[in-house]
């Protein structure tokens, strides 16, 4: 996203609008609209005055001040203040027309409105065609606004209603836009006086509960009321103990406290509702806006791990929600297998009709071991064994998946094969784009691929689950089996993965056990998981800070100078803050404090250029090419694991709070935070 949009979000609902608050139904890198459950419930929301568009005078997070065309000698007779706010499934707007003259004026305001109910996958410009010819669109004017409806098949029914106070003087069909409607008001405004119009857009998503109630005293609740309520809810999260910014000072890195504050605010906004194993409501971090505001296995797990020392409630909610969605059967269409933790959960039309596999998609090699890592880390960090006790069966099923379907038994490593032919992901590690796991000549690896970082996650998961088995579940035999498997994996890794000439681990092994020899940042994850011995870890850590890897804003996903490197490639040259956060934690683990600080300083410097919000991903160009980080054009903003990165940096620099006391038992925590 470019940063010029107005982005609003609340409990899984989000809206993206232009700087003036309008929605024009764009597609591509940054689609605008009101989105609920992966569907666009508002695709047009365009205001004109006396037939002309309005110019922006000024704007802030809460409002935008607009004016009709005017000149220096004849300035506009009136000004329009536009305020917008969001609640779950609802967009509220208040238009205030201010008369600038000492005489009455008349104005005609018109609002062009449409709802196309497009699925997010339709808007991503991936050149796919989705047949929705059996869908039925309807629109109808009412006494106080307009209603839109979309039906498909016997069980898909979504609608959007727009209500106004005062009601529009007229409603007509929009010219040249099928189903669009235009609401029109003719307003008489007294001298130096004002008139107001209150609007509420309510999205009724298919297979979802009703939108939030936004009635206020005498009518529609004001945007200011909603903003105040959301500010109180956010403050409960951002201001809770421990206060990370109080630790950022001792970390001694200027700007880190500001980045932590911004990250916490974004994490508060990205929280979405989820459901635990017993149907209980939980709160989890959605991955990012605009494409991924839903529960993602890998993203939500790493976000929760970064935030764990400071906001453990995120981990409790994430673990519960992922356990509830854990695989229970074999479904090749969505790669579900018993015990496997899902990659992503979707609720949109195309997922419902199985036109995309992502309704509940399990194409991830690393979400399952990361689930086990987080479960033990949560238990250790909080001193609370209740969740580990409650999720024992889920954890054992996850371990069984790693050995059976994950590949540890048959291949000796965690492996995956491409799901591209099935409409899914070509790669199933965090670098999941096509071509990301490549040889030095740029050729994508094929067959049963064993990516390096996933072996580190597996090692860590086996060791941590062994601790739970012995200390919480009291199953010593199971613990010994897992410890033995972890030791064997650590012993074999340098034998099969090490590139002797480069003195660096291979990116992966392909299906023929060939070393995939491109040099990638994934090696830094091995420091975090502890898979490498101290000597190799130090050599890898220092290698990642050499100029071909380190751009000045962070460590590139692929070292520059290699044939497949491209500074604007998603996973073959860009810089990802979360990737760097994992590496910084690994550097700190192995005593490479100066290197960890160098990574942290680079990321904080990048955040300074983005109002302290770290982008999801940056181009691989360094400060020698451009004095500010070059944006990646399809980056989400805000994005969860980027928002949590400053917390991970704080931990890497030694600012994490002390661990708690004795382990607690009793009812498991809810994860509502």
From TrEMBL:
Domain Mannosylglycerate hydrolase MGH1-like glycoside hydrolase: 448-608
Pfam families membership: GDE_N_bis, MGH1-like_GH
Family matches, as InterPro entries: 6-hairpin_glycosidase_sf, 6hp_glycosidase-like_sf, GDE_N_bis, MGH1-like_GH
Basic and acidic residues: compositionally biased ranges: 233-244
The organism's place on the tree of life at top rank: Bacteria
Domain Putative glycogen debranching enzyme N-terminal: 9-199
Region (Disordered) residue spans: 130-177, 233-255
Protein name (database record): Glycogen debranching N-terminal domain-containing protein
Species in which this protein is naturally found: Actinacidiphila polyblastidii
